[in-house]
Amino acid sequence: PPQAVTPFLYPPYPGTASQESVFDHSTPNYTYDNIVLAYTGDQARKNCPSPAPPGTPPPQAGVCNAGAGGYWSYSLGDWVYYDGHDGIDYGISYRPVYAAADADQIVYAGWWDPQNHKINVGIYVRLHHPNGYNTYYGHMSSVAVQACSTPGCTFVPHGEMLGISGTTGNSSGPHLHLLVRNPANRSVDPYGWRGAGADPWPHNQRESLWVAYPALAYYGAQIYPSGPALDYPRTPSTGILVDDGSLGFDETPDECWNDIAASGAQGGVMRFIRPRTTAPTCTAQWNFPRGSSVGTYAVYVRIPAIRATTEGAIYTIRHAGESDQVVVNQGVFPNIYYVTDGWLYIGKYNFSGTGDEYIELANRTQDETATVADLYVGVDAVRFVLQGVATPTPSTPVTVTPTQSPTITRTPTITFTPSRTPTPTVSRTPTPSRTLTPSRTPTATRTSTVTRTPTKTRTPTFTVTPSRTRTPTRTPTLTRTPTATRTRTPTRTPTLTRTPTATRTPTFTRTPTRTRTPTRTPTITRTPTATRTRIPTATPAYRLIDVYFVNKFRYENNLPPFVVNGVRWARSNVLPQSALNEYFKGPGSTERFSYGWIALYNGFTGYSRLEIRDGVAHVYLVGTCTPDERDFNVADLISSNLKQFPDIRFVKIYDENGGTQSPDGLSDSIPACLQP
Q1: Most buried residue among 119, 234, 291, 436 by CB atoms closer than 10 A?
Q2: pLDDT by residue (tens digit) across 537-573?
Q3: 364, part of any domain
Q4: In terms of residue numbers, what domain contains 601?
């Protein structure tokens, strides 16, 4: 038998993730055989078997194909995704990604293809581990590490933050694609194989590679086991702050950046410029103060909430005589998930404090040529937070192109991670595609009660005191687009009632009397009592809503009507808020680049609160009102998005100072600054 592999993996993210796509033990190489085989041995087929196997049939008779490679499993009673998948998909939204094991080399960190952001795993990190295994972390939105040339060139401990997750590449929604490859460069399931008989994928090890399982939440059948959740990174201290308006900031050439007042920016001002894919023509530089303490510093960059839409900003970190680079998709920061204030971690570096050390951002980016002209590079502030005494820096990093890497990765469902702040923040998150999945209604429950009277009982009666119930210290809550859910309901549940034998309470307190059973009962009486409980139909947790944007071509050429609409899933209890949140996120990638849709903001970056009273919605905007002398503006779109709901008849919109033209009465109202 093959030698067992010592477990070496730890959870690759903090908190709890939803269980999404599994490793397909049938063909984990993106060749499709119309079967998905989980590590438990449970099988899902594209074509419903005939005759039907034991288990739960699909919601719609004879339909076992949900699309996107997801098939129905009779044994699990749920949809399983997806055919040919070579990794594990964890549903996390723009959350820190951790190294899953100690690594001796960062093989690659950056875009899979800087000129095609819609293929494969997008922005990803590949680590090499001392036991010869490699781990890949796909669909990220930023990285905080750099590649180096050979095994042993660095040391990355498990739990080290590699960057922020996202939905770059071929992805239908924010998630982490974790791929594990063995020393023979074969994709393997880190959970091993628990099915009957031999694993159909001959390259897989039978045992689990996890030292500790990642924490999971389930919205259907549980396939993978779950472990305790890891903590999020600690909130850093302010450290050394260098703003774009301070003496430590330089731009080359002078005044090449456009500056604009923005209420959410550090110091109230941020800078921006159009990106380019050729040689840079404008550079921003935040200098590390000469004479500062020698040591290792965590570096954070502030991503502005407006005019920062490049998908490939390149930050250069000049430190202790060396230069490193990281790539950031500015377009998804800040957001409502983790980077809520725009401060993004880009790694830890040794600084000497002897001068010529800085963070640099230029207008040369890794954007697609077809879209670069419509984007902006945003500039604001940088923080250096001392971590401790400097450690030796590995040899000069180089970028290594992987020789064999994962192909297309698709996530069938959209996953949302709960916000860490209740305040809405502008989020320009690419909009995942919509997946409609059927629902299943729980069946009626039959409960049989069986009563047994034991014979010849001489039992001293004692009172059993229940032990103390532990209250969980942390209950992670996850939200996701509704998928098919299943409630396992036993058809008959026998309840056994017996006269207890002698027992002691946990406190060793005896009941002071003895009770004798005076008679002998030679027979056993069974009394089955069948009951039927009807379960009321629940209100759906999610609904599809419209989100209204503008057709860019028609708007710029003054060819009304301008308004177009897409659809989004939204929680049923916060529909108006969801419509506003989705509007301020802006159109998704397909809507923006393929359909030519845009959002109008007129200087506003979001809203601070939404109040609905007596059929009137009051929307309080944040940002700086910037009129454009057009009679169609952000106010029209906010009204369209809110008036789709029957409870809202009028919309009053307030500027950043709380002003609107008609604050009272049953009428619409907009800020005076938006009046043409």
Answers
A1: 119
A2: 344 566 789 999 999 988 988 888 899 988 887 777 8
A3: yes
A4: 542-674
| Residue 136 covered by a domain | no
Q: How many domains does the chain have?
A: 3
- Residue 248 sits in a domain whose CATH number is 2.60.120.260
Q: What is the C-alpha to C-alpha distance for residues 424 and 513, in angstroms, rounded to an integer?
A: 65
* Position 91 in a domain: no
Q: Rounded CA gap, 420 and 311, in Å? A: 24
For the chain, state the CA radius of gyration.
29
> Which of these three, 344, 367, 388, is where a domain ends?
388
Q: Strand, coil or helix: what is 566? A: strand
Q: What is the predicted pLDDT for the residue at 160?
A: 97
Determine how many CB atoms are found less than 10 A away from the CB of residue 496.
8
Type and span of the H or E element at 640:
helix 634-642
How confident is the model at residue 541, as a pLDDT? 60
- 3-class DSSP state of 590: helix
β-strands 176-181, 134-143 pairing: antiparallel
Domain-embedded: residue 666? yes
> Exposed/middle/buried for 502, CB within 10 Å: 0-12, 13-18, 19+?
exposed
In the chain, which residues have pLDDT < 50? Answer: 1, 392-539
Of 224, 238, 155, 237, the residue nearest 194 (C-alpha)? 224
- Share of residues in the chain with pLDDT > 70 (%): 76
Q: What is the DSSP string of 321-341?
A: TEEEEEEE-GGG-S-SSS--S
Indicate whether this model's pTM tops 0.85. Answer: no
- Residue in 219, 483, 175 with CA at minimum distance from that of residue 337: 175
Token digits of residue 499 = 């006269």
Q: What is the structure's pLDDT at 68?
A: 85
Which of 341, 372, 388 corresponds to the end of one domain?
Answer: 388
- Residue 391's alpha-carbon distances to 98, 155, 631, in angstroms, are 20, 11, 60
